[in-house]
Amino acid sequence: ALPEGRPMPPTAPTGAAPTGAALDDAVLEADHRHVLHSWSAQAHLPSFVVAGGAGSRVWDHAGTTWLDFSSQLVNTNIGHQHPAVVAAIKEQADLLTTVSPATANRTRGRAAERVLARAPEGFAKVFFTNGGADANENAVRMARLHTGRDKVISAYRSYHGNTGAAVVATGDWRRVPNEYARGHVHAFGPYLYRSEFWATTEAEECARALHHLERVVQCEGPTSVAAVLLETIPGTAGVLVPPPGYLAGVREICDRYGIVLILDEVMAGFGRTGSWFAFEAHDVVPDLITFAKGVNSGYVPAGGVLVSEAIAATFDERVFPGGLTYSGHPLAMAAIVAALDAMAAEGVVENAARVGRDVLGPGLAALADENPLVGEVRGTGVFWAVELVADQDTREPLDAASVARIKALCLERGVLPFVAENRVHVVPPCVVTDDEAREGLAVLAGVLRDVAA
Ligand code: PLP
């Protein structure tokens, strides 16, 4: 019974509950009426319902299915509804569903152990967060406390999350209302296709981008720079795989000036590039690694910072002032343990490497050869971008209306793409099969052919 004086709840609607397409309509109606959506004008929200999923596919209530070439926000590395991960979450839910970060908990310890097992030698601890933005937030704070310096240099073409320091470190349009924050400096990273340095080869682009970064450090005053914060492979900004030697060169600059190197592996980490961490292919070891997304495929929000021994030691006798009520949440931790165990047992990372090498890489290269809208394809593993242009010679980006049409046609033909600016990102789950990868590529190729015509 309701306590006296409280109004009665609204009467439940009578009649049969909607099903199928009618349920999709009802879901959309409630969503558009009540939810304030991220990164959207609320008057122009997409009409897309996801009711369920399994592996590399999702579906709505009417039974329409899509091949998920987006992994949602590039996080569902192990695919949708992996039974072992779902079971582990249920099992943990029966045991304990919340615990303060100030206590010790078996599942959290296990999760930290699993994450550390994937880190290079010399990493000591994990600081857990609820996602990627707060991982970067806390990594920046660790770097500042460790060095006693203030400034953070990040790349113009980057995305680091949508909270205070993380969004200011971000190089795209989302940082702009927060520009007043102090201590953040941006530099250009390598991007040969649209070189800021007038370079014509990878080697030139690499050398000039490194020279530029070192000049920024020198001009800012090396003793004021706490950290260089970079995505190992800038993801949302276009899957900008750095040229060989670039990250090793950044490491050298950081060492020369006593700067902490933070690599953001939130999108690139835990299998997406075909290795556990993307930096493994770049001959570099950072001081701090931030992660989220693929660590448990987003089944329960989780992220964190992998901390080197030297930086961890800073906080042996000194309080680290970071902390979140839900740091190391038991359900998220259970999902990490189960996801990482299943990925190892099932060769999920190896699968991502193989599908990238045998199917996506060659398929996208063929697409670039045949279609006049494709300016460049870049990527590795299950982490690719197709950059679309109006003109291959001038490299003028394809207009927004044509990109929107490409997205709509992909959806109509059963593929859910990840579209950013003038690019289609091909980022299926790491468990995608060869046949699914071919199926998605065939749809994308057909759509681009039709739009080009
Ligand atoms: N860093 C990178 C590289 C990302 O791609 C993202 C999200 O897309 C973030 C950080 C932010 O992560 P979250 O949305 O979990 O806060």
TrEMBL record:
Gene3D superfamilies in alphabetical order: Aspartate Aminotransferase, domain 1, Type I PLP-dependent aspartate aminotransferase-like (Major domain)
- Keyword line: Aminotransferase, Pyridoxal phosphate, Transferase
Q: Which SUPFAM superfamilies match?
A: PLP-dependent transferases
MF term (GO), any = transaminase activity
Stored Pfam families: Aminotran_3
| PROSITE patterns with a match to the protein in the record | AA_TRANSFER_CLASS_3
Q: InterPro entries attached here?
A: Aminotrans_3, Aminotrans_3_PPA_site, PyrdxlP-dep_Trfase, PyrdxlP-dep_Trfase_major, PyrdxlP-dep_Trfase_small
Looking at the keywords, is Ligase present?
no
Please state which protein family the record places this protein in.
Answer: Belongs to the class-III pyridoxal-phosphate-dependent aminotransferase family.
Instruction: Check the record and name the NCBIfam families matching this protein.
Output: PRK06062.1
PANTHER family of this UniProt entry?
A: AMINOTRANSFERASE, AMINOTRANSFERASE CLASS-III
Official protein name in the record: Aspartate aminotransferase family protein
